[in-house]
Amino acid sequence: MRHKRTQLLTEIQQKREKMIETAKKNGMASQETVRCSQELDQLIFEYQCVIKREKEQKKRMRISLRQMILSWKKAVV
């Protein structure tokens, strides 16, 4: 997952730079600038989804670990 997050951050930065260059060259309302902006939005959305999945996975792991610890404590007592 971290590889995907790093890859997306790189793509976001590259797309942001391309969008800025395109806006300077062709204007903010040009088709190419708008397309870059939409692609950037999509990359940001994907990044947010990856982060959300990572948080949910960590939460599930913590819950599983707590359950395992409680089961172990009951077995020992």
UniProtKB/TrEMBL annotation:
It comes from the Bacteria. This is Stage 0 sporulation regulatory protein E. The lineage of its organism: Bacteria, Bacillati, Bacillota, Bacilli, Bacillales. PANTHER family: ASPARTYL-PHOSPHATE PHOSPHATASE YISI (PTHR41263:SF1). Pfam families: SpoOE-like (PF09388). GO terms for molecular function: protein dimerization activity. Coiled coil: none annotated. GO terms for biological process: regulation of sporulation.
